[in-house]
Design a protein that fits this description.
It contains 20 helices and 8 strands. The chain has about 525 residues and is α/β, with parallel strands linked by helices. The protein has 2 domains: about 375 residues, no CATH class; about 80 residues, 2-Layer Sandwich (Transcription Regulator spoIIAA). The protein has a 4-stranded mixed beta sheet with strand order 3-4-6-8, with no helix packed on it. Strand 3 and strand 4 form a beta hairpin. The chain starts with a helix and ends in an 11-residue tail after the last strand. It is found in: Membrane.
């Protein structure tokens, strides 16, 4: 425990500013997603606070940040309509949390291992592109849709692209100036030349951009052509007393406990939220420079506890969220402390800072997300994926296009269909098997790979490697393998980088080295 505390203390100088950046990103997203879901704005903030303080504490993930997810807005909106009240829906959120805990104990987290790397990277790149496209109208001060909308078809009848064209015809000059200044501050502040100085490393660029944006906004207030209207500013509920706080809280309607529709909504939330969480933590693990692995079943249990508390206190269902997690990583977050710090700031903002934060222009926050989006979808990612061949690039690219023109889960589903097509085609040409041999007298564990090792073997190989005891001598033999899928090679290489931690001696026989494509 002493070493663990020392590790957290040493990381605090990076986790604190990272938590502040995540807070600035999460604040408008929590409010926007709640309003888009047909729920009280306060419910989104409750979800963000619990996601950081409770889920981060219970989760085994170092970098993922949980909160309300744009992918659940339709489910929440339909759930409230079906059940007839927000209070009845809150009971469904509580039950969804119970179901997630059951899934965790049933070890359903293994599902995440069945998604190919090409699809996961496509998801990251698509989210980056979507972030950029969705922020352009806010950056120009011409979008009234909720901040955090990620769907191609928008509530106002526009699409991602038509909204951009419309925005260029309705530019609000004050917002545009603030957006450009904020973006310039972030890019200059984060440049390699300035990062050599301690001050620029410790103080997050997003904070400086937000402070400058508030100052500029106040200067523009008396100029009609530059004045930024309230719909393009952060809009926090103002809490001035304990009574105000209690009035904002909503509690579940326990009388709906026998309503079968409550259970149907709860099961839907549990399945979709769990799947989105597993995909998010898998993606964040690929982004993590330290290559830490999130225990998937523990994550499901943590999300379940979070959703139970969120439902009891009037919050929305939550998931691990890529946008906030990526902002955390890009801001230098090292441990789960950064996620907890972001929740503390959310709590303080509700209690003490609403009047100040309500002066932040959305165009300044759009500038922060433009940078986050670009880091998720850098050209180097496309080049690296292209070099791996069409079997990796086509599912990657199809996933991007599908997410861009639909939503996250539909796009991933389409990407999976294409990936499975290539897997089945490869397996049709050459059958495969996976065999483990243990020679007790020599204390050697020999993993003999078959003639063709596809992505379908990845889950069993990863589980086998994860359960190899410390101080073992392991031989992975690919002598008779004609083809070893890139995802399997990646899993073996990742095991190789971690083997020394368990004092495992590893020998690779005819297992080729692989280029692990950086996702950021």
């Amino acid at each position: 425990m002493g070493l663990s505390l020392a590790k957290y203390r040493s990381s605090l100088k990076k986790d604190l500013p990272a938590g502040l950046v995540v807070f600035l990103v999460a604040l408008p997203l929590c409010l926007g997603i709640a309003l888009a879901s047909g729920a009280p704005a306060f419910s989104g903030l409750i979800t963000g606070i619990i996601g950081g303080l409770v889920v981060a504490l219970l989760s085994g993930s170092a970098l993922s940040v949980s909160g309300p997810a744009a992918g659940l807005t339709i489910i929440v909106l339909n759930g409230i309509t079906t059940l007839g009240s927000f209070e009845a829906f809150l009971l469904a959120v509580v039950l969804a949390g119970v179901f997630q805990i059951i899934l965790g104990y049933a070890k359903a987290g293994i599902i995440g291992l069945f998604f190919p790397s090409s699809v996961i990277r496509g998801m990251l790149a698509a989210i980056g592109l979507t972030l950029i496209l969705k922020q352009i109208p806010h950056f120009l001060g011409a979008d009234k849709d909720f901040f955090g909308d990620m769907n191609f078809f928008q509530p106002d009848g526009e699409t991602t692209f038509t909204e951009i064209f419309k925005a260029f015809g309705n530019i609000q000059m004050g917002s545009l100036i603030i957006g450009v200044v904020s973006l310039a501050i972030i890019l200059i502040w984060d440049s390699a030349r300035l990062k050599r100085y301690t001050f620029f490393r410790l103080v997050p660029s997003a904070l400086i951009a937000v402070i400058v944006s508030i100052v500029l906004g106040s200067l523009f207030a008396n100029t009609p052509t530059l004045n930024i209207t309230s719909e393009h500013l952060v809009n926090l509920p103002v809490i001035q007393s304990v009574d105000d706080l209690l009035r904002e809280l909503t509690f579940p309607d326990l009388s709906q406990f026998t309503n079968i529709n409550v259970y149907l909504v709860a099961i839907t939330i549990a399945i979709v939220a769990s799947l989105e969480t597993l995909l998010s933590v898998e993606a964040v693990d690929k982004l993590d420079p330290q290559k830490r692995i999130t225990p998937a079943n523990r994550e499901l249990k943590a999300q379940g506890v979070g959703n139970i508390l969120s439902g009891l206190l009037g919050g929305l269902p939550m998931t691990a969220v890529i946008v906030r997690s990526s902002a955390n990583l890009n801001a230098g977050g090292q441990t789960r402390v950064s996620a907890m710090v972001h929740s503390v700031f959310l709590l303080l903002s509700i209690l003490f800072l609403a009047n100040i934060l309500n002066q932040i222009p959305l165009s300044a926050l759009a500038a922060v997300l433009l940078v986050v989006g670009f880091k998720l979808t850098k050209p180097a990612l496309y080049k690296g994926q292209f070099r791996l061949g069409k079997e990796q690039f086509i599912p990657f690219f199809v996933t991007i296009i599908a997410i861009l023109f639909s939503d996250l889960l539909k796009g991933i589903g389409i990407g999976m269909v294409i990936a499975v097509f290539y897997i089945l085609r490869a397996n049709y040409r050459s059958p495969y098997f996976f065999k483990k041999e243990k020679y007790a007298e020599k204390e050697i564990i020999r993993l003999k790979l078959s003639e063709h090792v596809s992505f379908l073997n990845k889950a069993s190989i990863v589980l086998t490697l994860d359960h190899i005891p410390a101080n073992s001598h392991v031989v992975i033999d690919g002598t008779h393998s004609e083809v070893i899928d890139h995802d399997v090679l990646e899993a073996i290489q990742e095991f190789r980088t971690k083997a020394y931690e368990k004092n495992i001696k590893l020998e690779l026989l005819n297992v080729p080295a692989v280029e692990i494509v950086a996702a950021h």
